[in-house]
Amino acid sequence: MATYMESMQKHFQNNNRVRDTQSHSAKVHSVAWSCDGRRLASGSFDKTVCVYTLERDRLSKENTFRGHGDSVDQLCWHPKHPDHLVTASGDKTIRIWDTRCSRSVASVNTKGENINICWSPDGSTIAVGNKEDLVTFIDARTHRSRTDEQFKYEVNEISWNNDGDLFFLTSGQGTINILSYPALKPLHSLTAHPANCICIEFDPVGTYFATGSADALVSLWDLSELVCVRTFSRLDWPVRTLSFSYDGQLLASASEDLVIDIAMVETGEKVTEIPCDTPTFTVAWHPKRHLLAYACDDKHDRDRDSGTVKVFGFPTDP
After folding, report:
1. What's residue 239's pLDDT?
2. 148 near 134, Cβ under 8 Å?
3. How many CA atoms lie within 13 A of 24 on its CB side?
4. Where does the record place its WD repeats (predicted)?
5. CA 220 – CA 236 distance, rounded (Å)
6. What is the pTM (predicted TM-score) of this model?
7. Cα(178)–Cα(207) distance, rounded to whole angstroms?
8. What would the pLDDT profile of 16-28 be if each residue is shown by its tens digit?
């Protein structure tokens, strides 16, 4: 009987086509799938948000949202409502969008230039972090700020755990700091990397979380024990972005290396890799299929960013 590893390697031999959608006029910072997997969204340096519909084996652009006055640095979808997404921008606002409308349904002023954003698993709260390491918790219903938390260290990425009772931050000191939620009392500070800890991602199953660091390593942590169970070391540059597949078995990681690494979570072995011409800033697995959305620092010519969104994993042409 073929192992999962072998069956996935075979799957990607037959499904390794990349489809590109040219949608932005500048670098794409963030891509994410809606919770039902029917839509993909991208946020760009060009201040816009694009939404695409996934038909069986192709993406088609559905809408371009305008309204932000600066770069859209990160976006995420509502964990349970497939039409709602939120964007963080350098214009000192976050915006909530409904894909059924052509404009934002809410714009919330914040205290600084926003660089990271996440939605609590129950959908009630949005957390947004800015360049001054201030994290603001916003009521997703009333759009009012509930609380601000100023940190004394560089905060890179923020996330709740899947149960929503812990809040995680990755730091410039290489630590993963864990707070209780909603009390926001510090519980643990895990020394994860000797260098800046950049990104954090939780698997959908609730077993592991992974962090990526400037030391070019990805570390995988057991969530119940808070111990590092393995590291992935195939990349040579700072790991900027991570994503677990819907079944929790595959982990994609990307950096300025000219490949995206796709590994078996349980063994660390390489399943496949996606060649890239330029650094990759964002990756996101589809919530139900083995399709990986990503965006690179592509250039049309030397001066102009191409603003392309790519999806890997479509059937290879016979």
Report:
1. 98
2. yes
3. 32
4. 21-62, 65-107, 190-231
5. 17
6. 0.96
7. 16
8. 999 999 889 999 9
